[in-house]
Amino acid sequence: MARELTERQQAFVEAYCCPGSNYRNGTQAAIAAGIKASIAPQQASKWLKVAHIAAAIEARTADHREKLAKISAARSRNNDEMAERWLIEVERLAYFDPRNMMNSDGSPKQLAEIDADTAAAIANFEIHELFDGQDDQKHAYGLSRKVGWTDKPRALKMMGDYLGMASAKKLQVTGPGGGPIVMQQRTDADLEHFVMHGRWPGE
Q1: CA–CA distance, 22 with 20 (Å, rounded to integer)
Q2: pLDDT per position as a tens digit, 87-108
Q3: Which one, 84, 95, 158, 184, has the greatest CB density within 10 A?
């Protein structure tokens, strides 16, 4: 039957295993467990050699590792979801067609009628009530709608960068001093000379 840890031994195990300033530091873990600093190194060394305390440390360490693995996996999934969401939004901005804002007769669609992909590309949407007349004769006769789109060229550039389609940098190769490259024929003897001396004949 496994021996129970005392209150101080349990505190020592927790301080020794938990990430922080005391992690894997026997002396500091012992002090955190209530042991005097003057005898903490000796007490920590003694506790670390006790079988049931060492087993408790191993079990607590494994528990922490399991929790960290779960957290890491959750973060990885969250990052993947965020990246996927980002890509969807950039695609919407890059490929939106403003004609989807219009009905077949050329009249503008109501905001609720616009599909999600097109709506995502709207940067701002303003509605102004139009009036005619003065003073007592003033009356509303219609609405003015103003739509602002997102920066499509910028979104296309972001998509191009993501897909690796950005313009490739030109690599210019020249000879010594920026002059033309001089092609030379090398013989087997030249190659042997290079291997033996680290330079080509005549250099």
Answers
A1: 5
A2: 888 888 888 888 888 888 888 8
A3: 158
